[in-house]
Amino acid sequence: MTNDPTRPEARAPRGFNDRRARDLTAERQILAKVSEVYERYGFEAFDTGALEYADALGKFLPDADRPNEGVFALQDDDEQWMALRYDLTAPLARFVAQNWETLPKPFRRYAFGTVWRNEKPGPGRFREFTQCDADTVGSSRPEADAEIIAMAADGLTAAGLPAGAYVIKINNRKLLNGLLATAGVTTEGQKLAVLRAVDKLDRLGPDGVRLLLGEGRKDESGAFTKGAGLGTAAAEAVLAFTAAGAEGRSETLDRIANVIGGSPEGGEGLEELSRIDKALIGMGVAQDRAMFDPSIVRGLEYYTGPVFEAELLLATNDENGAPVRFGSVGGGGRYDDLVARFTGERTPATGFSFGVSRLASALRAAGRDLGGQARGPVVVIAFSPDDMAAYYGVVGELRAAGIAAEVYLGSSGMRPQMKYADRRMSPAAIMLGGDEIAAGTVTIKDLDLGRELSAGVTENAAWREQRPGQQTIPRAELIPALRRILDASK
Q1: 338 assigned to a ligand binding site
Q2: Is 89 annotated as a binding residue?
Q3: Which range marks the domain in which residue 281 is found?
Q4: Alpha-carbon distances of 266 from 177, 260, 270, rounded to whole Å
Q5: 88 is in an annotated binding site
Q6: Is the pTM of the predicted complex or chain greater than 0.85?
Q7: Residue 303 is assigned to a ligand binding site
Q8: 420 is in an annotated binding site
């Protein structure tokens, strides 16, 4: 083939993935199972448009001179900048501010949909992906946080992560704020620097975070990151706080209380976690599914109280069988200031979010792929163009019975058609030649059985001996015969 400069190169933009049936089936199953849980908790399904005005995106508002910074933006015909939604929370805040007077309060909603981020793509980091969120807006009760946590846990279980496969780790920003106030840290900039340092604990360890809490840290490449500027005593107090976790939630609260001292904000944070603990106990959420962990701070700056992060505990491997660590598969917390950007009035809110594609990838890496190998339809082999009406009579009958089916519409002979059906992972192929049409019969080839035999599967030997690889039967027996093949492969 010669290069033709007038032909575009077939390529996908970086960070945008093509997904076939296996991936889509897994994601759809996750969303269906999680949606059922969220609705059982009384949360309303909700969606917003893909585009928002750029100034509604809050923390991710583009600079005036760089409207595409962080988001994909375009200018409307009225010269206002619009951007593809970066997450599902900023559109919720905008909607609540617009419709607060008419909404039931609290407003409880869940949503899933595509979000876009104009960031540098990398392994496991995409510019387009599906998120699933659940939020309660309008309740300041810690029990609202507890319910989000319990619902997130039940949703992850429904998605395929049983107890012991994950844990939701919970903390409260007010605890660390109280500790820092006691240590004399009062500026927001220094507080954020401490939060960012603690957020790197799992990657850098206590020694690396100790440097970032102090003057700064130089990484292996020689690049220097300026630290939070805490003194030695304050830095050690922060590290002691992050290490105060215990086996039980109530024991962790006792240890935290001993570390943070008697600051009013810290005491408020302890009281909130205590109420969350009691609500979780009432909902039957045990320590192995939700635990208090003072090292969890979450990276986003808008969290104002409790924060939580869902961590995968299953052993996972990449496509080559090498161990890989997924870590967090979702998170959230309380963000009481987000709606106030529009209204000027503080509106309490709390929520949880997870990346659907990331969770599907984690399940697959742990050997719990919901999508599996996507099944194809039953394929009717096309022998002659003169008999197409008969072929379509068969597929019409199968489809009416709820069985996916298609007539082969290529131009190849029988052997390539059988190969096509095998590549589609079809359960069976139907052969309807002139003799079968005249006799009122149909021939079925069991492709699932053929795949089992070629793979050396030895289970169910007795059933296989009674299961014909190919059979010619009366046309009236077609549906029951196909159902036996489909049921045997479930």
Answers
A1: no
A2: yes
A3: 21-365
A4: 7, 7, 6
A5: yes
A6: no
A7: yes
A8: no
